Amino acid sequence: MNTDIKYWLAFNQVKHLGPINFHKIIRGFPDLETAWKLGQRQDFLDVGLNEKQIEEIIQAKRQISPNDLEERLYKEEIKVVTVLDNDYPILLKEIYGCPPLIYYKGMIEQLSGPTIAIVGTRRMSSYGKLMTEKIARELVENQICIVSGLAVGVDAIAHITSLNFNGITAAVLGSGLSSYNIYPSINRKLAHNILEKNGVLISEYPPEMLPLKHNFPLRNRIIAGLSLATIVVEAGESSGALITAKYALEFNREIFAVPGNANSLTSAGPNNLIKQGANLITSAEDIFLNLNLQYTTNRREKISADSPIQQIILDQLSFEPIHINNLQKQTNLSAAELNASLTIMELQGKVRNLGNMHYTKNI
């Protein structure tokens, strides 16, 4: 790590500076300690900053203590990696306007291996949940680090599936990493579990930064920038997941989309992406073929019936939930036969009980 890290922290606190202008300062001064302590108005003009930005720096110098910023990170066990450090994620460094520094908790080195993003709606369907679990599991089985945004819905399921199958996952936040700022609060336990399982939480924002609305589109550019490819599982036409896909396209990274029902609002986003040229994906193998990576499968054997009754049930099940009463009508089985068979098939992993007497075929 750079010995002048506290000055990186200080410049990152300057209002309205932004990554592009921060990079101008990095390039224009011998080091950031010199820039902070000795930089004059003309020096900052010479590197390409305007008067308003320079005034913000002058104001920050009066108000900010670099030593205090460094001490706070130490107390909160938050680490920092700068764009000049060897541990800075290589893929992220490739993008224009990459964050000059990122704050993190956990193991930043996990981002040095192959990484793929899984993103999608907060209001996923049962089909979206199943497909997220399927693809995430297959990626984990092939030693891929899954990157997502810790949001409720597809993001959380991608993280959870990775952890459940002993994989590595990285969560990119739109807030600071102080424990009380982890957003959404319902997923703070998930964030803790990610760290417990050797994953990593990262943010470009200082620890005290609140989860402000405008932070999240910028957060999405980091998700895309960290990843070889971005997978959109389910997303409405105005979903933030499509912003991530847009950034992936801008960064010349591959985009994959899970096809869905043409009448489903949550499939409108990925269906439109496919129309526009995104790669259609139904399993992780599609990604590996596209990226010319070796794919190994540990998937369970294709679900098969152990009896004629099981076959009748499987023929009527799909990845959309069906109530047991409707299933009974479609199969013409007695209630006793259906209940007994569903119980056995659930234990065998052939069907999934979603609660409230709704069932789907298991992936």
Automatic annotation (TrEMBL):
Where does the Smf/DprA SLOG domain lie? 79-290
Please, which domain of life does this record's source organism belong to? Bacteria
Q: Which GO terms describe its biological process?
A: DNA-mediated transformation
What this protein is called in its record is DNA protecting protein DprA
What family classification does the UniProt entry report for this protein?
Answer: Belongs to the DprA/Smf family.
Q: Which residues form a coiled coil?
A: none
Q: Which organism is it from?
A: Candidatus Falkowbacteria bacterium RIFOXYC2_FULL_36_12
User: What Pfam families does its record include?
Assistant: DNA_processg_A (PF02481), WHD_DprA (PF17782)
User: Organism classification, top ranks?
Assistant: Bacteria, Candidatus Falkowiibacteriota
Record domain DprA winged helix: where? 304-354
